[in-house]
Design a protein that fits this description.
The complex is a heterodimer of chains A (255) and B (310). Chain A is mainly α. Chain A is built from 11 helices and no strands. Chain A has helices spanning 3-16, 20-49, 57-77, 80-87, 91-96, 102-130, 142-163, 169-184, 196-204, 206-219, 227-254.
Amino acid sequence: MARPTALALEYHLVSYRRTWRSSVFSSFALPAMFLVAMGITVGRYIDERSTAIGVPYLDYLGPGLLASTALQVAVGDSTWPVYSGFHWSRIYHAMRASPLTVGDMLRGHLLFAMLRVALSGVAFLVVLLLFGALHSWWALATPLVCVLLGAACAAPCFAYAARADNDGAFAVLFRVGVVPMTLFAGVFFPVESLPGPARVLAWVSPLWHGVELSRAATLGTSTAWGLPAHTAVLLLWCAAGYVLALRAFTRKLGD
Amino acid sequence: MAEDEALIAATALVKQFGDFTAVDGIDVRVRAGEAFGFLGPNGAGKSSTMRMIGCVSRPTGGSLRILGMDAAKEGAAIRARLGVCPQQDSLDLELTVLENLTVYARYFNIPRRVARARAMELLDFVQLADRAGDKVEPLSGGMKRRLTIARALVNEPEIVLLDEPTTGLDPQARHLVWERLFRLKQRGVTLVLTTHYMDEAEQLCDRLVVMDTGRIVAEGSPRELIERHSTREVLEVRFGTEPLDRFAEKLDGIGERTEVLPDRILVYTDDGDAAAAQVHGLGLTPSSVLVRRGSLEDVFLQLTGRTLVD
């Protein structure tokens, strides 16, 4: 990591010192509730009637919720905080007067968001361990999956947030992006149960690829398209998002 | 003045936003150690000029050299040696007063220990040392502005840019800020500021330019500008609530020129008392007569007009 990028990251770490406890807790408390409510209760109902998924439903759901937590944290950290940097705290404007470049600011903040995603991933992994939902040592790789998925979601959100005229834009993003993805991208049920066109949407979404990787890791199974293909799709989201975000940041701070 | 003597040298500098020309070919030289002011009404191009000097906005045309470097190419290296006090505060309200300085110092890659020592020193300088551990949020406007000034000094800059440093502050807070800025000037720091307060410009600036619609319309020291564009003294004559036009005709010829305002007539003259005597000599009985020194405000209004710019 280049030195100036690390210096930009440092700001976010200093301000995180104040809130990290509550934020780690809240970032996995909600999915943990889902895990209890759906994994145990709905899970019992499903497991009594079918063994088609091959493992207890809770173990199937767990890695899906892990990935959707990464999505939630990534989007949450790359919308309001980025908007705030331009409009409320104006932190980017403050940084702009220093030798840091626009790219340094963007990368520093993105790295911080990835750190948050990784931390919540690790916390959630511990919850899954306590529920006995981990079947493979590959589960240790899931924080990495979370970071890759998180970056794939955060980078385009940075671009979106930098261009947003008001913070109402984020409610739209959650309604048409995050919630449908969470419901239909393989977290709760296999995408094969979806009708054709909806399945295509799931394939395009970054979350499905994250869920596939995460589930294969905790259950020790194989993925639908293979590790390289899923990784490539996520990297494509990262790269496109980063280019758009850098362009949006430069436009916003350059003139 | 030779190019290499100037810390800031702008030549035919232009800034356009689409079809709109904010800065329309200005030439400016700022020497080391001087306090230089940009004056002008809203929309005159002061802030656009400041943003180009601060290397956060690219010139559209002309050349801009700062500390011997090209602003268009070496922005980061120049910013490392500038201090910027923006018009709109960008302090972190969640962090403490001290943390605001130390965090900012880190952007300049100043070692943590040095940053902390320097921050304590600067808090002393802006008289906020007793608030070091407090959050920024509840501080008054004047305290926040002083903190922003301290923050601008954390990298020991050679040039400090101040965009309307005392706008919105109460008189006590303004005077404290002026006094601190004067001390900085004494230490040899070059100050570049924008303002639309004429008293601020007279207090602080060795030299200034008046801008209007993107161009420089006058340049010099406050005294030179007053001598060149106004008169040494101004006589203000009031006639209660009576219409002033008929008095104005009679006053014509007294002083260098007269100006009729809704509530009073201004007579620009080098000798106010003599002019006042002439007014009385005409047999007129004004409700009030005031002789005051010519000010930058007179120059400013003379050059940029009295029409309100919004």
